[in-house]
Amino acid sequence: MKSSNVVFVHGLMGWGPNDLGGLPYWGDAPAQFTPRFLTHLAKCGPLSSVHDCACELFAQIVGARIDYGESHSAGAGHARFSRDYTRRGFVESWSAENPVILIGHSAGAQTCRMLQNLLAQDFWGLGSNADWVEAIVSIAGPLNGSTLAYRYCDEEQGKPKMLPSALVASALSVVSALSRVGASRLYDLHLDHWAREEESGEFFSQRLDASRFIESGDNLGFDVTLHGAARLNQSMETFEACLYLSLVSSATREGSFMSLPFLRKRHRPDRSMDLTMRDSASYIATRPEFSVAPTPDWGSDDLTMELWRENDGVVNTISQRYPFIGRAQPVGGEGIFGFEERLETGKWRYQRLDQIFGRAFDHNDATHGARMKPFEAGRREIQRELYRKLARLFETFAEETAGPASRAGPSLGLEDRAISRRSEK
């Protein structure tokens, strides 16, 4: 592998390094990649659509003003341009010869996929292609949507059932509960293209409610429904030269109440699950029933409701494996760690985290959730080991795919490369 840069991308209601008083969204994960890799923490709109988040991610990596695209912006009804990262890009001379590894948690996984697809289209006119991304890692990603979204979205069309300001208020309350701080004061909504956040309070809410944020479907609430995931997957490809890995989390177990055999079995939260997720886990385990099919093939094979009951508190476990709603993608099979010899580019490989570590993983255990369980022995160390495994995997894959010339002589180390870049300046 050529990559020396790893970019971490948060998901729905996620945050960046400057939010929430510096609370680390990714916990101890980035530190496990040093010194072999440079790591970067992206900040995208926590409620913005997958397309808009991908545009924000691109601008941060390359160092440019955010450009959502003329046609897309006109169709959605928001401004075309937003913040400017021209002087603070993550990667110098980003290209197919100097690609990145993208690690996306939750909806951030779809953001990573969308970025690669926009690069393949040369969306920003820089001569880009899909090979600017060498690997995508999905962690608890709603690659086929989450049925939890229908708690807030219409079951027939998948659009949020509330005003944008109410959606924002709901998001802020959840983040506040997770972070134990006043999120409205310390949380960047990154909705500049819809309404200027400096016009805070009632005026900001009025401007947002008067926009086409909900109507256009250009929001993350819609994109994480099954309806939205099907639309996204129809527009996105899996590319031959890229490595695709999916780490699957689960924190529910099937059983009857109090283990009474005469009661109907259903999925219930594992006792290790964060208290803030138990209600949502129970919702996924019992609802919705879908009086109207969310996709044309609903009711057959993997699109059977009972197979969608197991979850991690936020995302259905079956949805996290690989994209299949809307458009089938190439699948390499199950098994990542310990199966390195079977890894091949252009196909999705997946593995359950509970099978690797022998304990349940709720939606946030692979990120900041590990720090929020100080009384659960070994949780933070397990998180560290997960990302150490990933770092070693990338190094091993690089050695196995390198040509003879690459293996013959010493490689330029990361520190030497950084010194070289500085001397060139």
Describe this structure in words.
- The structure is a single chain.
- This protein has helices spanning 50-62, 70-76, 108-120, 164-179, 183-186, 202-209, 220-223, 226-235, 278-286, 353-357, 379-401, 404-408, 414-424; strands spanning 5-9, 38-41, 65-67, 81-84, 100-105, 133-139, 243-248, 252-255, 266-269, 331-334, 348-352.
- It has 425 residues and is of the alpha/beta class.
- Strand 5 (100-105), helix 3 and strand 6 (133-139) form a beta-alpha-beta unit.
- Helix 1 packs across helix 3.
Question: Which helices and strands appear, and what pairs or packs with what?
Answer:
Elements: E1 5-9, E2 38-41, H1 50-62, E3 65-67, H2 70-76, E4 81-84, E5 100-105, H3 108-120, E6 133-139, H4 164-179, H5 183-186, H6 202-209, H7 220-223, H8 226-235, E7 243-248, E8 252-255, E9 266-269, H9 278-286, E10 331-334, E11 348-352, H10 353-357, H11 379-401, H12 404-408, H13 414-424
Parallel strand pairs: 1-2, 1-5, 5-6, 6-7, 7-11, 10-11
Antiparallel strand pairs: 3-4, 8-9
Helix pairs in contact: 1-3
Strand residue content: 5-15%
**CATH topology assignment:** Rossmann fold
Q: What is the helical fraction, as a range of percent? A: 25-40%
Counting structural domains, the number is 1
Rounded to the nearest angstrom, the distance between the terminal CA atoms is 26 Å
What is the 3D form?
A: globular
Rg (CA only):
21 Å
How many DSSP helices? 13
What is the string of SSEs from the N terminus onward? EEHEHEEHEHHHHHEEEHEEHHHH
Strand order of the largest sheet: 2-1-5-6-7-11-10
CATH superfamily: Alpha/Beta hydrolase fold, catalytic domain
Number of strands: 11
Unreliable segments of 5+ consecutive residues = 404-425
Structural class: alpha/beta
